Amino acid sequence: MENKNKLTVRILILIGVIAGTLTPGKSYPARIKDIAQIEGGRSNFLVGFGIVAGLRGTGDIISPNLTVQTLINLLQKMGIRPDPTALKSFGIMAPRTLRPRDSAICMVTAELPPYAKAGMRIDVQVSAIADARSIRGGQLILTPLFGPDGKIWALAQGQIITGGKQIGDSPATLDFGFPTAGRIPSGAIVEKEISPPLNDKKFIRIFLNSADFTTAKLVADAINQFAEVGLAYVQDARTVLVVIPEEFTGRVAEFISLIETLEVTPDAPAKVVINERTGTVVMGKNVGISEVAVAHGGIIVKIRKEPSPLPPEFAATAEQFEERKVNIMAPAVTVDELVSELNKIGASPQDIISILQAIKEAGALQAHISTQ
Question: Per the confidence metrics, is the pTM higher than 0.70?
Answer without folding.
Answer: no
